[in-house]
């Protein structure tokens, strides 16, 4: 099975750094798991513009795209549920 490369948009990287350390660790573990399975159980394909996917990590969400042809998972946004879907 192919291994995907994880990339972050600069804004997503900044969002991750502003979160508490324990939350950062939980999100990093969930994001790292996307390298082997970019569409894990519980993933949701978002409606609207773009080919966006999201995973839940407690009260937080990770929104990303999957580029199967390049084997890349691009993290677009992450953060608390109430904030992450704004301006997508």
Q: Helix and strand layout, with pairings?
A:
Elements: E1 5-8, H1 10-18, H2 21-33, E2 44-45, E3 52-57, E4 60-67, E5 72-80, H3 81-84
Parallel strand pairs: 1-5
Antiparallel strand pairs: 2-3, 3-4, 4-5
The overall pLDDT, averaged over residues, is 94
Order of helices and strands: EHHEEEEH
Total separate domains = 1
What separation lies between the terminal Cα atoms? 31 Å
The named CATH superfamily: RelE-like
What top-tier CATH class fits best? Alpha Beta
Please give the order of strands in the largest beta sheet: 1-5-4-3-2
How big is the Rg? 12 Å
* Unreliable runs: none
Tally of contiguous helical segments: 3
Report the biggest beta sheet as strand number plus sense, adding barrel if it closes.
5 strands, mixed
Q: Can you tell me the overall shape?
A: globular
- Named at the architecture level, the CATH assignment is 2-Layer Sandwich
Beta strand count: 5
Helix content: 25-40%
Which structural class fits the helix and strand makeup?
A: alpha+beta
Sheet-strand content, in percent, reads 25-35%
CATH topology: YaeB-like fold
């Amino acid at each position: 099975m192919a291994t995907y490369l994880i990339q972050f948009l600069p804004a997503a990287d900044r969002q991750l750094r502003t979160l508490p350390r324990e939350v950062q660790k939980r999100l990093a573990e969930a994001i790292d798991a996307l390298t082997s399975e970019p569409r894990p159980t519980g993933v949701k394909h978002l409606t609207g513009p773009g080919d966006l996917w999201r995973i839940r990590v407690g009260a937080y969400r990770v929104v990303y795209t999957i580029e199967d042809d390049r084997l890349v998972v691009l993290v677009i946004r992450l953060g608390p549920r109430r904030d992450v879907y704004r301006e997508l």
